[in-house]
Write a sequence for this structure.
């Protein structure tokens, strides 16, 4: 029974306490909303917790296997046993700590989800109509595009979406966001481009043979460039040439 004392409650508690440590950084700093970064952070948090749990309990189990292994045939079944209190503690304490961590992560995800479903008041609106197999965008000011949009950097953009035919799903991997576009329904998603550049949107719901061939480009540009582009598009559509294609 002498081996019992070495199981090391102190190291167990220290390891469990470490699980809670990365929790601090989830608070928002009140700057430009960046749900994509928040999702990344939360995902990283999950990975860190899994890593700590894996290393601590995997390592501990391996240590125990070696430390208490039988070194002679007669020792099999004769190893030191846990007391009842230790056995209960080893079941209850990790369970409570892990559940607390799970609830903590779930609560953060819930807060983030609410953010993701609350459109900022200053968001510009783009109407999106999904088709087999392309995306029509309508800025509501006479400007329409297909399979590409420009948005201003640092400006929340809300997509009000529907579909002309079947269920599609508009997903922007870099912005960590995706939402179905459904015939007869209005759905939405919003995002903020944090820096200039182009990123790809794809259809995330199998919608027919052309499903893989309906990418859309989202180009984030500085506000002034965006304003100039909108103006040029309006002039283009006001010209006597054929009106903007509209299926
Ligand atoms: Cu589709």
């Amino acid at each position: 029974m002498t081996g019992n004392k070495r199981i090391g409650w102190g190291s167990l508690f220290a390891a469990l306490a470490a699980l809670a440590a990365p929790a601090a950084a989830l608070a928002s700093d009140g700057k430009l909303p960046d749900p994509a970064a928040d999702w990344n952070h939360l995902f990283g948090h999950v990975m860190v917790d899994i890593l700590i749990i894996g290393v601590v309990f995997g390592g501990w189990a391996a240590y125990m296997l070696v430390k208490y292994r039988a070194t002679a045939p007669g020792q099999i079944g004769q190893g030191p046993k846990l007391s009842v209190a230790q056995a209960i503690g080893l079941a209850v304490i990790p369970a409570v700590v892990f559940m607390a961590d799970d609830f903590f992560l779930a609560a953060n995800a819930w807060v983030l989800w609410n953010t993701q479903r609350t459109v900022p008041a200053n968001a510009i609106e783009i109407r999106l109509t999904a088709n087999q197999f392309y995306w029509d965008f309508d800025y509501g000011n006479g400007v329409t595009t297909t399979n590409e949009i420009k948005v201003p950097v640092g400006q929340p953009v809300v997509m009000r979406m529907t579909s002309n035919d079947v269920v599609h799903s508009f997903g922007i991997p870099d912005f960590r966001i995706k939402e179905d576009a459904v015939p007869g329904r209005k759905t939405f998603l919003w995002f903020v481009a944090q820096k200039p550049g182009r990123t790809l949107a794809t259809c995330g719901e199998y919608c027919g043979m052309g499903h893989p061939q309906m990418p859309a480009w989202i180009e984030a540009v500085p506000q002034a460039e965006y304003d100039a582009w909108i103006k040029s598009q309006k002039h283009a559509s006001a010209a006597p040439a054929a009106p903007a294609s509209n299926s």
Notes: Helices lie at 9-20, 35-67, 84-116, 223-238. The pocket of copper (II) ion is lined by residues 130, 168, 203, 207, 211, 214 (CB under 6 Å). The chain has two domains: 9-70+80-116, 124-238. The domain at 124-238 is CATH 2.60.40.420 (Immunoglobulin-like).
